[in-house]
Each structure stands twice: as structure tokens, then as C-alpha cells.
Amino acid sequence: MALDEQNAVRAQYAAPDRLNRRISLHEKYSVNRQGFGNWIVSHYRLEEGMAVLELGCGSGKMWAGRESLIKKCAPLVLSDFSEGMLLEAKETLRGQEGIEFQVIDMQSIPFADHTFDAVIANMMLYHVPDIEKALSEAKRVLKPGGTFYSATYGEHGILEFLCGLFQQEGVRDSGNHSFTLQNGKSQLQAFFSDVRRYDYQDVLSVTDAEDMADYMFSLTGLTRLRQLPRETVVSVLKAHMVEGVLHVPKEYGMFVSK
Length: 258
Prior knowledge:
Helix content: 25-40%
Strand content: 15-25%
Strand order of the largest sheet: 3-2-1-4-5-9-6
CATH superfamily: Vaccinia Virus protein VP39
Radius of gyration: 19 Å
Number of domains: 1
Number of helices: 11
Shape: globular
Number of strands: 9
Distance between the termini: 27 Å
CATH topology: Rossmann fold
Largest sheet: 7 strands, mixed
Structural class: alpha/beta
CATH architecture: 3-Layer(aba) Sandwich
CATH class: Alpha Beta
């Protein structure tokens, strides 16, 4: 990852506004009502007394309302490389006991070897400049037999669809494909002996083009698209609606590694 890209990522996650805008779109228009966050958590196998570290916890919303799961952890450490996101997580989970918050760069995790029973890094590995170093660190702090959870997106989902819609406007997929459902398993297998992929079935049925435009302008990738006038973006989106609905494919899933 180049320095300018690193800076763009830091700017994107310095405050929760852009992330919340994207989360809001998924919550409002996803056909699968289970929700990606609930689906991810359903794959966690956390038992009483387990030490758990989450890297890139974002707003902490994944843990909201999960008091019984939090109580199982001893401790639960939520971390992010962005101080702004960590402040948001603290606010989201205010009053919830049993959580430690730390600013952590996954490439240099400040814990001793074999500290955690589970390490979580959802929707963030593609932002890490040195993924090999990050995975090495995750393995290092895991206890023997521990589990590493890493959700990510695929290469044939929302971004690919949007680039197709705006191809005539010169929009190309400049998304980060450094850790996807397509290439993540091979990277994980260099560090973990048992790597399993699980796919989440879903699609967006968007009825308000303005909401989709908000999502698109919140992205740091698709630079050319963000240079287009908003009215042009909304117009193209509306032109591709069928009976008032824009059907947007999603490709998300996760790896469970031991």
C-alpha cells in the first residue's frame, strides 16, 4: 500500500461518519435480514473464560447488545488503529463492563506470545500495508489451538457492479483487492493449518438513488466516480432501476482459521 493510500485510509476512518453511512445502506436495503454482523458473530465459538482480541473494531457496533457474549470473554480487548473510531466504540459500548480499549496497529500487536484464544480482524486486512506481517502477528499472539476470524468482501460484488454502471463515465475499479474472498485463503494458509471459507448470501434492493449516491461518495476508492457531479451519479443510478429498485449484488464472507 502506497503512502498516499495509507493516508487516504487514515482519513476515511479518522471519524465514523463515512463508515456509518455505508453501514446504514446495508442495514436499510439488504435482503438478508439476518444481517452480516449477526451472521459473522454466529460463527464465533467463544467459551467461558476465553481471552479475545478484536483488531479494527470500528464503531464497536458488532458488540452492542451482546452482553452475554462479552461476559464470556476474559478479557475482551477491542482495538483500532484510528483513535477516532476507538472513541466511537467507547461511546457505543458505554457502561458495558469487561471491555478493554486500545489503539493498535495489527502489524505490531503489543501483547506477548500465546495471549489470546481468539483474534478477530473483520473487514480490515485489505487496509494493512504488510498483510504477511499482520497475519504473523495474529498467529503469534494466539494460543495453540486458537482461532483467527477474518471477514472480507469478494471481487464480484458492489464495486464491480458500480464500475459497470459508470463505465461510460470512465470509472474503473480501483478498489483494494489485497485480501478478498478469492485470494484470502491462500494467504492465510501460509500461517494456519486449517482455513475454512464461509459465504454470506445477500443482495441490496435500493429504492432511493440518493442513498446509493451517499454510499458511493463515502468511498475512498473509485476516484473518478467521486469527481462526477452528484446529479450525474443519481441520474445514472435511476436509469438502471427496475420498477423503482436498483438490485446491487453483494459478495461477502469470512475465513475461520486455526
